[in-house]
Amino acid sequence: MQNPVKLILLMATLITLLVRCGRDKEETCAFVPPVKDRVSLEFISLSDSVVNIGTKAELVSFLSRHPVIRDYFLRRSMYPNDSVFLDELYKRFTNNYLDTLRADVKRVFGDERELKNQFEEAFSNMRYYYPEAKLPRIQTLVTGLDNDMLVSDSLIIVSLDYFLGPGAKYRPNMYEYLLRQYVKQNIVPSTMLLYGMNRFGYNDLADERAIADMMAFGKSYYFAKHMLPCVPDSVFIWYTGDEIKGAKENQDMIWYRLIEDQVLYSTNHMVKQRFLGERPFTIEVGEKCPGRIAQWVGWEIVKSYMKAHPETSLPQLMEMSDADKLFKESRYKPVKK
Description:
It is a single chain. The chain is mainly alpha-helical. It has two domains: about 45-180, no CATH class; about 200-330, no CATH class. Helices cover about 55% and strands about 5% of the residues. It has 17 helices and four strands. Strand 3 and strand 4 form a beta hairpin. Helix 10 (about 210-225) crosses helix 15. The longest helix has 19 residues, at about 5-20. About 30% of the residues are buried.
């Protein structure tokens, strides 16, 4: 009679192999840096501080201690004056539904250690490529679904109530194809994408052609993937697994449409919006083609460039400012797979 423990281990191994073999190639890891010293980030949870605000004086004190949250994350300038701004925030922060949001945040994120660990993984990897890079502070809070995140070189702010997922009582008011992506697993990948875009994406702001946008997005996705090398591509670009698989299988048709519609060198806002902007699908290609498809093509071009030029480091890629050079030297061939 076979040893039951060995049989269970054998079955587990077989299942793991089958799952791995069934995955799309995009599920594989990029280069995993041999990080020796993991960074420690300043990570501050402010959710309880917000929920415990009971008077306007306490609200003013909180906003005075956190001017970036006040001015940029909560968008002070959108209100006609300080009095209206404070009244609106006080009503929101003392509403009972904020307690529900805070309870859901605790249910989903616990003590937030897992989130902190993923941020530290990403920035430890960044330090491998950029040893002298300054590390940002991380602040988390609940805002009553007012904003999702703010990303800069020195400070990252995340409103956790935006990322509670489908089990939450309250969720942001947006289209379902966008809402499905606001889950906790997407916080750090999305943050690193924005971090890459802010720091390295647009090297030539005067170039308003679609190809420049495509290369900027492509570099940013490539950067983010290398900060979290084993996170699937679909997570970074907010596609489902089926959508990214379909894009790979139909990239020849997608490329044909980009050329036929003269998208690459267009500066027309409407043309760029159709292929680069947020949409449920790119109808010009087909009803099953996801939106922002030219962003994905830009990422494929950047991957092709790095494959053709293995001597190029990640920092060298991110500093490339000539979109035409990056595109032409990528040797990108949209072959149907």
